[in-house]
Amino acid sequence: MNLLSLQPKNLWARRYAIVSVVVALLIAGLVQMMSQAQISSSVRPADSFVDSIGVATHLRYLDTAYNRYEDVVKPRLRELGVRHIRDGGKDPLMFQKINDLAKTGIKATMVMDPRDGISPNNVIGEVINPILPAIAAVEGPNEWDVHRQLSYEGQPFPEGIRRYQTELYNVIKRNSATKDLPVLMPSLAIPFNAPQLGYLNALTAGNMHSYPGGNLPSQDLDTKWIPLTRVVAGDKPIVATETGWHTAISDPGPPQPAVSEKAAARYVPRLFLEYFNRNIQRTFIYELIDERSAPEQENNFGLLRFDGTPKPAFTALKNLMTLLNDPGANFQPQGFNYQLQGNLANIHHTILQKRDRRFYFILWQEVPSFNPQTKTDLTVPEQAITLSLQTATKQAKVYAPIQSLTPIFQTNNPKDLQLKVADHPLVIELTPA
Questions:
Q1: What are the Cα distances from residue 334, in Å, to 134, 211, 286?
Q2: Which long-range contacts does 180-184 make (Cβ < 8 Å, 24+ apart)?
Q3: Do the beta carbons of residue 50 and residue 20 sit within 8 Å?
Q4: Which among 106, 130, 121, 115 has a CA at the least distance from the CA of 161?
Q5: Same domain assignment for residues 303 and 350
Q6: Domain check: are 71 and 49 in the same one?
Q7: In a shared domain, residues 313 and 349
Q8: Cis peptide before 401, with omega less than 30 degrees from 0?
Q9: Beta strands at 135-139 and 376-377: parallel, antiparallel or unpaired
Q10: Is this structure's pTM higher than 0.85?
Q11: What's 197's DSSP letter?
Q12: What does each of the 433 residues of the chain score in pLDDT, given as a tens digit?
């Protein structure tokens, strides 16, 4: 979990944090200039978007809802259609579940942390080898920057975590069976601690826990999360192994404000699209299921309620993934010529293509759907736009995944589509002539 409200507790740390903020603000202008290039409108394979979606789990937490593996966790993961989970630990029963999920096409990104008894000396024999075919990536220790009492070989953060990560990386890369595994950066709870950790060469990809703090999905991505992650990762790819919202409205906080289940259903699909547009390699929503029935926020981050029933966000994400699912060999998408007209303020979009040549034009308003201060849903007026199709199109179908998988409109041989874009994704399926 990312504790957004935690602040440095001594004067030196506060001054260091201020310097870090200034550095981030200085590069913010450059990042803003680059954002149009990052938020690309080029056509990408539909399945690459589906494969970028992951969900955090805690399969070894048997005193929580995760103890219902057979009747809730496994079937709901398969129903969602997700191919990636993020977990961690060194538990034989968890290993059995990891291997079982891998048989259904769900692979794991595994956190390696000394707190779980995992060291560079035993990581391959005791942790990786038992589940090697099921592992998609390995991740460094989790959020040590807010646990300053922790140490590795007598060294606290940041020296201890740098040493652990370097030794972990070297052991994995020098072993013939594991050398191709991606190794992710240790996660930080507070991104402004990145300058303390400094640049790390012992990683394959960066890592961020970019919680929006009750705000819209793209909150601070371009001005804080991504540039500060690059302080550690350089120009390597970035993975977000934790992000999301909790729905414990009655919890006054801190560290994070809540959103309603209705707002989460709008935010969650948009989050994956916003991250995908910024070329974040993979994004893991935190988490699959509410761990306990208690009203505290830590127990209410799930896409599922404690009893296993889906929240609206689960259904909206499942429908979006079902529409875009297209597994198979790599292919090169074709070009797509179009023009958008009308009220385009805060309108974001993604263009995807399947192997059968169908295009998927996805539009949404990237605006707040919830007021964290008043704890009320916002009424976001739809914006009327026109999508002019300059690529010959045989048929168009329009979907609202937040509602269902049934088209809300379809037409043949369209030239101009009059659309009303809301604060949740609108998917236009276009069959080329």
A1: 33, 35, 34
A2: 181/128, 181/135, 181/137, 181/138, 182/136, 182/137, 182/138, 183/137, 183/138, 183/139, 183/140, 184/109, 184/137, 184/138, 184/139, 184/140, 184/239, 184/241
A3: no
A4: 115
A5: no
A6: yes
A7: no
A8: no
A9: unpaired
A10: yes
A11: H
A12: 543 333 333 323 333 333 344 444 444 433 333 333 233 469 999 999 999 999 999 999 999 999 999 999 999 999 999 999 999 999 999 999 999 999 999 999 999 999 999 999 999 999 999 999 999 999 999 999 999 899 999 999 999 999 999 999 999 999 999 999 999 999 999 999 999 999 999 999 999 999 999 999 999 999 999 999 999 999 999 999 999 999 999 988 778 999 999 999 999 999 999 999 999 999 999 999 999 999 999 999 999 999 999 999 999 999 999 999 999 999 999 999 999 999 999 999 999 999 999 999 999 999 999 999 999 999 999 999 999 999 999 999 999 999 999 999 999 999 999 999 999 999 999 999 9
State the residue range of the domain holding 223. 11-324
* Same domain for 391 and 318: no
The structure tokens 């969602």 sit at 80
Pull the structure tokens for residue 417: 């589509």
